[in-house]
Structure formats: C-alpha cells, structure tokens
C-alpha cells in the first residue's frame, strides 16, 4: 500500500497538531491501588461501588481508571441502588470518547455535574420518593476527583502525613451558605416543632423535613434540594496517599484525625474494619456505618503497613494551587510534584456557573447536545444555560452550553424560578 507524501508547503490545522502532540505523550505510570471496605448495617440503606478497571476508551486497557463511591440512602434504598447502577455510565456519557487523558481529566468536573443532575432527573421520573447521598471518587494516575452531595465524606492523608477533606458537608445544621441558598430559592429551614414554641433536632428543609440541602432523588421535597455536586480535583505527590470514604455513621462518631489515627499502619482491609469498629464503639450502631479505605501507592512502594507515616504530623494543610505555568495534569517525577496540588474546586449550585466553560474546555463538548441529559438537538432548539441568570461575567444568552426544554425547566426549579412539588410528608426524613 503506497502512501502519498504531503507537499512541502502543506499545512495542518493547529488543532490537528495539538491532538497529535497530546496523543504521543508518554502515559504516566499508574500507581498501585489497594482497597477494602467494611460495614455494619442498621437500616440496610448504605451501598458502595468499587471498580478499579474502568476504561475511558472501551477496549483500551491503557486508559483505565478506578472508581469508589458510597451512596447513603434514606426513605428506602431505591435511590441509592439506582445511583450506584447508573451514575458512572452517566459520567462517561457526558464526556466525548475521543479525548486524550489530559483533556479527559479537565472535562471531568463538568461531566460529573451533568451526570449527577441527569441521574437525579431520571430517577425522579420513576416517581419513587427515596433519596440518597453520593460521594463519588475517580482516581486516574495520581489525580483524584471527588464529587459529592449530602454528608458522606472523603478525606485524604498524604504520604507526608497531612490531612485534606475532598468533599463538602451538605447538612443544613453545619452549612450556613446552603441554608441561605435554600431559603433564597423558596424553601423554609427550621427544626421540628412540638408546639408551645419548643423545637428540637437538627435543621431541616420544609416541605419534606430533609436534613440535607443536596441529594439525588427526594422528588417529594422542594426542587431547591439539588443534585449539583461539590467537585474537588487534586493531584497527589509521587509518594501517594490514603483515602477514607465513609458514610455519616462514621463521621458522626469520629473526627478526621481519629479515623486516620486508629487505622494508621494497617493494610486497607484491617483499616476499614477498624474505622467502623471505632465508630460503632463510640456511639453504638445508630445508623448504617460504612467505610472504604483506598491506598494509592507508587508501584515500587511497599504497603503502608510496612512503611508507616512519619510521626508528629496528621495535621490539616492548605492545598498548593496549580501553577499558571503548568499546562498539564499528567503525572511526572519532578521534585515539584512532591506535594498535594489542587487542580479544581467548585461547590456552586448554579448550573449556569458549573456548566460554563472557557477555551479549550468548551471545544471538548458537542454544541447541539443538551449539557445535562445528552439529548441531541437541532440548531436553535437548545436553551442557553445562561438564559435568565445573573452571571458574574458578561455573557450572552445565545452562548452555549445549551439545555433541552426539560432540563431547562429543572434548572429553573432548582434556582427557585419554578413551582416546587408539594409534600405533606414532614418529619419522616433522614434524621442524623
């Protein structure tokens, strides 16, 4: 088969050259990921998802990444089971399949927002009234991306001994910003009232009486209880670290430091069991108590049980921000990588902010596809995500990304611009 040599004066578009350069980048060596989980069940509403051999490109074993997730259901297990079975597919469906690894990691935060909202919208269409928290962790090389709604949390202890929280707590009792957002969107926040001016228990949102400001499902509460996740993306140092992903049964009993110190030096299977044991011993089995421990180690490193962390640390650290000079998320072995680097963080509940993108990210997604449900639309059918929103920067309502009419309606309801579903089922919700 003969090949025609390009003419000397032939030029190629910049996009093609960039694609070629990116596609020939050296694939970073993948770390060893060792994981385990433990659980003591009270209600049977905690579910986990653990998969270490997911593929960005189907059939290409060099594009693998790992996913670990906890779904803590309430008012029944249906929402937790549905999210466990569908959330990953919705994430992958929201990212074009032809991206290189670096582009894929850049696109993940927006794709996670789309996937959480789509999962919620699809489950609510089934007219089931349960809900669930979701803490969803994607590990690709040394890059960890965490998306979360609710009060199941993910923490990181770096190999150097510093502690980082990678998720947000969406309990109304502890999150003043979420209280302000819910009330501004039309919800009421208060404690249970027994009459005579006496109130007790944690702060709840009415209608429905949910203690959380964000969840998947919960179709019988106001739409201002949103599925839009907090997303944080970090790059670990070349030495790796340990993740603890747990439902609130753990965090109601243990601080971050206590959870890490009680299992330090233990392999993941023993560590997960020890965290659950400590939590139950501390307050009794009052709720489903679930823990996933994930060790992210360089391939040549021994397990943590053979290489205990330096004593005297275990303190919270502030992330070092991604430097403006760095143009890649890919792992490298330079001395500059010996810290935990924050790549991305956004916790806004506004889709106009979370789906908004700038060059080059905007070119990674199809223009005439709904940014949430991935429905293909004809030119002119879609509604800009900026339609009717007050945005911090000047935007035009005809700028993308675009939503279909159904997803635009959900966006407006979440922002308090549409009617919310009524509910008389007060007082039966999650009561931590």
UniProtKB/TrEMBL annotation:
Residues 406-432 are annotated as: Disordered. This is protein-serine/threonine phosphatase. Its cofactor is Mg(2+); Mn(2+). It is an enzyme of class 3 (hydrolase). Transmembrane segments: none annotated. It catalyses: O-phospho-L-seryl-[protein] + H2O = L-seryl-[protein] + phosphate; O-phospho-L-threonyl-[protein] + H2O = L-threonyl-[protein] + phosphate. SMART domains: PP2C_SIG, PP2Cc. Residues 409-420 have a biased composition (Basic and acidic residues). Keywords: Hydrolase, Magnesium, Manganese, Metal-binding, Protein phosphatase. GO terms for molecular function: metal ion binding; protein serine/threonine phosphatase activity. Coiled coil: none annotated. Residues 30-296 form the PPM-type phosphatase domain. Its EC number is 3.1.3.16. It comes from Asparagus officinalis. SUPFAM superfamilies: PP2C-like. Belongs to the PP2C family.
């Amino acid at each position: 088969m003969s090949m025609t040599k390009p003419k000397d004066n032939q030029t190629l578009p910049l996009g093609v050259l960039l694609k070629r350069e990116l596609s020939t980048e050296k694939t970073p060596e993948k770390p060893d990921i060792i994981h385990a989980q433990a659980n003591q069940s009270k209600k049977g509403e905690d579910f986990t998802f653990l998969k270490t051999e997911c593929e960005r490109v189907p059939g290409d074993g060099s594009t693998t990444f790992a996913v670990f997730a906890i779904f803590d259901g309430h008012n029944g297990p249906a929402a937790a089971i549905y999210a466990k079975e569908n959330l990953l597919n919705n994430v992958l469906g929201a990212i074009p399949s032809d991206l290189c690894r670096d582009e894929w990691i850049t696109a993940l935060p927006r794709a996670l927002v789309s996937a959480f909202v789509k999962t919620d919208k699809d489950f609510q269409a089934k007219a089931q009234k349960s809900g669930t928290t979701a803490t969803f962790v994607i590990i690709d090389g040394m890059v960890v991306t965490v998306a979360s709604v609710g009060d199941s949390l993910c923490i990181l202890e770096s190999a150097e001994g510093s502690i980082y929280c990678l998720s947000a707590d969406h309990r109304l009792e502890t999150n003043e910003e979420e209280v302000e957002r819910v009330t501004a969107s039309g919800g009421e926040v208060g404690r249970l009232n027994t009459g005579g001016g006496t109130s007790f228990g944690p702060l709840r949102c009415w209608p429905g009486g949910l203690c959380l400001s964000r969840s998947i499902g919960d179709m019988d509460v106001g739409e201002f209880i949103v599925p839009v996740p907090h997303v944080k993306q970090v790059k670990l140092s070349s030495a790796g670290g340990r993740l603890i992903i747990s439902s609130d049964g753990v965090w109601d009993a243990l601080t971050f430091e206590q959870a890490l110190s009680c299992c330090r030096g233990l392999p993941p299977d023993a560590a997960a069991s020890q965290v659950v044991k400590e939590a139950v011993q501390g307050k009794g089995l009052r709720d489903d108590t679930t823990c996933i421990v994930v060790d992210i180690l360089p391939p040549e490193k021994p397990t943590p049980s053979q290489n205990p962390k330096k004593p005297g640390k275990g303190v919270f650290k502030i992330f070092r921000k991604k430097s403006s000079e760095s143009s890649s998320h890919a792992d490298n072995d330079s001395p500059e990588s010996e810290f935990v680097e924050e790549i991305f963080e956004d916790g806004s509940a506004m889709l106009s902010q979370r789906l908004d993108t700038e060059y080059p990210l905007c070119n990674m997604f199809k223009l005439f596809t709904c940014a949430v449900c991935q429905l293909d639309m004809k030119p002119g059918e879609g509604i800009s995500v900026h339609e009717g929103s007050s945005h911090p920067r000047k935007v035009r309502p005809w700028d993308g990304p675009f939503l279909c009419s159904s997803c635009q309606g959900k966006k407006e309801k979440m922002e308090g611009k549409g009617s919310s579903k009524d509910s008389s089922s007060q007082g039966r919700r999650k009561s931590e």
